[in-house]
């Protein structure tokens, strides 16, 4: 049975808060701990560890949702941004943003966002030595050595001439003596997805996306190639079922 996670709802408008509360009530494993238009109350509740997830509007008087999220970053509370302004989707870099919901939203989208937050929480709680199957042995470009790549910490991969550059969560870059296609065949993880002839990415590191780009939590914008868009969108739909 799923753990019941407590949700904080913050918006200076009553209608979207009420709609979110209705959606949360219909999704198994989640409960609305509070619904408020007061960011200072939301901050107090978060600091008191009375919520597991925060869903917040962005543009609000006194304190914006981004400002509040930065105040609680060290608490490792995942944040779901909720706004009519899509340009704010990429502004969550630097805070624990796990998803961007565009107003008005739908029940299915809220459920998907909350599941992303649950994954975030689960990964934080289980920060231990990764199991051996999370590692892949790959050949480095500049040395006659092999490298143990921790696949869960891959941010994205980029074709670099005939070789591949892998960028990790830490920002470290690893150059491999292998084409992008061959590297992906060696990694062979369902969450590492090719989205462009020159790029592949870790699905779990996506913060937001539109028809042209995936916006990674690291701040990198990964283009979505026309020839990969259909398969990528089908993959995303399969994750929501």
Descriptive labels:
241 residues; Rossmann fold; OB fold (Dihydrolipoamide Acetyltransferase, E2P); 2 domains; five-stranded parallel β-sheet; five-stranded antiparallel β-sheet; 32% strand
What does this structure look like?
With 241 residues, this protein is an alpha/beta fold. It has 2 domains: 5-125, Rossmann fold; 132-239, OB fold (Dihydrolipoamide Acetyltransferase, E2P) (Beta Barrel). The chain contains 6 helices and 15 strands. It has helices spanning 14-25, 39-47, 65-71, 107-125, 180-187, 226-239, and strands at 5-10, 30-36, 53-57, 79-83, 97-102, 135-139, 146-150, 154-160, 163-168, 173-176, 192-196, 199-202, 206-209, 213-216, 221-223. A hairpin with a 2-residue loop joins strand 11 and strand 12 (199-202). The chain is elongated, with a radius of gyration of 19 Å.
- Assign the structural class, choosing from mainly alpha, mainly beta, alpha/beta, alpha+beta, or little secondary structure: alpha/beta
Please tell me what the overall shape is: elongated
Question: Largest beta sheet: what is the strand line-up?
Answer: 2-1-3-4-5
Largest sheet: 5 strands, parallel
Q: What's the N-to-C terminus distance? A: 19 Å
CATH 2nd-level architecture of the largest domain: 3-Layer(aba) Sandwich
* Strand-residue proportion: 25-35%
Order of helices and strands: EHEHEHEEHEEEEEHEEEEEH
The CATH topology of the largest domain is given as: Rossmann fold
Number of domains: 2
List low-pLDDT spans: 89-94
Number of strands: 15
Computed CA radius of gyration, to the nearest angstrom:
19 Å
CATH superfamily of the largest domain: Response regulator
């Amino acid at each position: 049975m799923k753990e019941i996670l407590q949700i904080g709802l913050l918006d200076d408008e009553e209608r979207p808060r009420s709609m979110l509360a209705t959606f949360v009530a219909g999704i198994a494993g989640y409960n609305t701990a509070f619904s408020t238009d007061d960011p200072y109350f939301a901050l107090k509740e978060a600091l008191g560890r009375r919520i597991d997830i925060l869903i917040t509007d962005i543009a609000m008087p006194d304190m914006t949702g981004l400002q509040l999220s930065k105040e609680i970053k060290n608490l490792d509370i995942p944040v779901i941004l909720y706004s009519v302004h899509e340009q704010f989707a990429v502004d969550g870099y630097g805070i624990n943003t796990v998803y961007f919901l565009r107003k008005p939203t739908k029940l299915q989208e809220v459920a998907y966002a909350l599941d992303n937050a649950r994954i975030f929480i689960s990964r934080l709680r289980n920060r231990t030595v990764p199991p051996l199957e999370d590692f892949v042995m790959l050949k480095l470009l500049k040395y006659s050595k092999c490298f143990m790549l921790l696949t869960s910490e891959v941010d994205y991969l980029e074709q670099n001439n005939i070789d591949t550059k892998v960028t990790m969560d830490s920002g470290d870059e690893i150059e491999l003596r292998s084409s992008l296609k061959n590297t992906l065949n060696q990694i062979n993880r369902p969450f590492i997805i090719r989205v462009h002839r020159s790029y592949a990415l870790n699905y779990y590191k996506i913060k937001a996306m539109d028809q042209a780009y995936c916006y990674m939590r690291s701040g990198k914008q990964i283009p979505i190639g026309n020839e990969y868009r259909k398969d990528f969108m089908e993959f995303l739909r399969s994750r929501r079922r």
